[in-house]
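Hi F.,

I've been meaning to write this up properly since the lab meeting, where we talked about keeping a consistent format for the predictions we share between groups. The idea is simple: the sequence comes first, exactly as it goes in, then the structure tokens exactly as they come out, then a line or two of notes. No screenshots and no reformatting. I'm using this chain as the first example so we have something concrete to point to.
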Amino acid sequence: MLLQEDLNFLLTNRIPRTTLTRFMGWFSQIRHPWVVRASIAVWRLFADLDLSDAKQQHFHSLHDCFTRELKPGARPVDMAADVLTSPCDAIVGACGPVAGTTVFQAKGFPYTLQDLAGDDSLAQHYRDGCYITLRLTSSMYHRFHAPANMRVQQVTYISGDTWNVNPVALKRVEKLFCKNERALVEGTLPSGHPIALVPVAAVLVASMRLHWLNVRLHLRYRGPNHLPCDALFTKGQEMGWFEHGSTILLFVPAGFALCEGIAPGSRIRMGQRLVQVPV
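Output, unedited:
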């Protein structure tokens, strides 16, 4: 097992990560049927790729497959007012209460809200709150959605590295989420409570697309880093996508709690209940 983890870490991290990620961004846009069919066939050899619930079954590029839409009704959304739903299909990673301003990417690997945001903006709202790490694998549905009715008024883009965010890397690279490219999406619930979604990029993730911004966030983006906005979302409404697969960190303030059954290693789909809202 240790040898397997060493090999995984070597192959996915001890490579020119940024160069390979930019190449993937270019390659995924090639619109040629042979390239697309061959790429998807190779992809299936290494991942459990299931396209049965995709709205389209034929793709003009690998990018179109990565960012595929789903058939209507493929992801029912729990509309109960007292729960926040998962913004994406994911495997749950580290989760639980925020200890002051400290959270964990893996057992024994802490980081602080200040490290993640680069300032105290998250710490002041989510001290002693609750967090959950949602990891999207390469074969999963890559679009993410609003976990509740919410208003987004600030996005902060932080450029960075593209370390793999799989469990092997999270157990070896300290403060990995604080090193990688990421976007802090800060919103407010109808109750007035703050909520933060932090999409984190990774190796081969060519870009992040947030629908309410007129720019694409990627390694070549040069600013501005603070992007004021005013976007209203209804629960389950699509907010954006990754172009390969990565991680979304979700933060809520004190008083919120994880729903029953949410634990590291569990699989969850977009729209399923995730966090209990305080009464």
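Notes:
The chain has one domain: 1-279.
Residues 1-5 have pLDDT under 50 and may be disordered.

If this format works for you, I'll send the rest the same way.

G.
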